[in-house]
Amino acid sequence: MIERDHIVSVPRVSLETRGLGIRFGGHVAVNAVSCAFKPGELTCIVGPNGAGKTTYFNLISGQLRPTEGQILLQGDDITSMPTSARALAGLGRAFQLTNLFPQLSVLENVRLVIQARRGFGYSLFSLWTSHRDAIEEAEMCLERVALQHRRDATAASLPHGDQRKLEVALLIALNPDVFLFDEPTAGMSIDEVPVILDLIREIKADQSKTVLLVEHKMDVVRSLADRIIVLHNGTLLADGDPAVVMESPIVHEAYLGMSVQEAAAIDGAAS
Q1: What would the pLDDT profile of 190-222 be if each residue is shown by its tens digit?
Q2: Helix 160-174 crosses helix 193-205 at what angle (to 10 degrees)?
Q3: Which strands make up the sheet holding 91-93, listed edge to edge?
């Protein structure tokens, strides 16, 4: 177990994958990907469907065990660490905690995550009055995702857009050092999207936090990314400044399926 309280200074690299890969039979889903991620940086991971983006996230967060390579958090090897231990060590992924207790209220779900983070565990038998500060923090988390009006609804009863907002609230309640967002605005209405994007910008502004974001909407990528990495057929195709990466001919061919000139013509027609 990594003792977060013993981390005195912000490390230069918070999360790193070294030659990370996984095979399913003869299919290489992620192919020896090496990347280092720093605090205060938001990295967008893009690529066509089937590129390996979500599989890469699954490896980092512990849903899958790699065939090869290592994962390091704050310099410690967490490759064999279970998902729950990674979360408490400071690696948070939204859907890890979705509908933790589907039949409990939205507020109770967030409160239980806060209790777990503080070392009280997911206790259903604790008196609410004995965790008043946890309740107040849970209410603040719900307010940040504009979900306070649904605080008493059961998690299972929420429409899809509100469930995605609850995912983000649970992740905020966990307060990790590294945030993993996998298409956080998918299924949300146009009116709901700005709430989540503004919250991600707020997290990004905290120079002690690292944010990784899988996203298909290129307007979101352009507005948020400090860095873009492109996966294609499980292989790291490009890594760097968003403007440079998105103008790369090889990226246009692999990700957009068109040349730079064709993409520019489409952008011009749309404007």
Answers
A1: 888 898 999 999 999 999 999 999 988 888 888
A2: 10
A3: 91-93, 178-182, 210-214, 42-46, 227-232, 235-240
- Phi then psi dihedrals of residue 32, to 5 deg: 50, 55
Length of the chain: 271
Task: Report the C-alpha gap between 248 and 26 in whole angstroms.
Answer: 30
Nearest of 172, 241, 174, 236 to residue 200 by alpha carbon? 172
In the numeric block, which tokens belong to residue 215?
């996203």
Q: At 194, phi and psi to the nearest 5? A: -60, -30
Strand partners, 2: none
Whole-structure pTM over 0.90, yes or no? no
Q: Which domains does the chain have, with CATH numbers?
A: 1-90+178-187+214-271 (3.40.50.300), 94-175 (no CATH)
CB-CB contact of 11 with 96 (8 Å):
no
Residue 203 in contact with residue 209, Cβ under 8 Å?
A: yes
Instruction: Pull the structure tokens for residue 151.
Output: 């605080």
Location of structure tokens 């502004």: 205
- Longest alpha-carbon distance in the chain: 63
Rounded to 5 degrees, what are φ and ψ at 4? -65, -35
d(CA 21, CA 34): 9
